[in-house]
Amino acid sequence: MADTETARKVLEARQKDIEARLARIESDLGEPLLADSDDRAIQLEDDESLEGQAAVLSRDLASTQRALLRIEDGTYGDCVQCGAQIPDGRLEARPEAALCIACARQG
């Protein structure tokens, strides 16, 4: 059985980090566009990159939050697909893991 208290601390720290990074990206994306057309083009390219990063971070945040919910409801460490116990080593490496290795390989 996974050490849920350690997992909770790791996941909560990760959640705070992701939220801070998303806030910085949101702040950067909220800056007004520059007047110079060359600079504006560069800024728009940068914004596209930031939007991509925000999408990845949003998915990571959702996975982290779902893992915290599984801790709360007592299902943390159980594969959400087949119900098998997720190995502790996997949970230590990826505390947000919702699938056992066999189910993750199938998906």
Structural write-up:
With 107 residues, this protein is mainly alpha-helical. It has a domain at 4-76. Helix content is 70%, strand content 0%. The chain is built from 4 helices and no strands. It has helices spanning 4-29, 37-73, 88-93, 101-106. Helix 1 (4-29) runs antiparallel to helix 2. The longest helix has 37 residues, at 37-73. It is elongated and about 55 Å long.
Summarize the structure.
The protein is built from 4 helices and no strands.
Shape: elongated
C-alpha Rg (nearest Å): 18 Å
Unreliable stretches (pLDDT < 50, length at least 5) are none
Please report the distance between the alpha carbons of the first and last residues: 24 Å
- Helical stretch count? 4
Number of DSSP-assigned strands: 0
Biggest sheet statistics: none
Mean pLDDT metric: 92
Secondary-structure element pattern, one letter each: HHHH
Helix content: over 70%
Which class best fits the helix and strand makeup?
mainly alpha
Q: What is the strand content?
A: under 5%
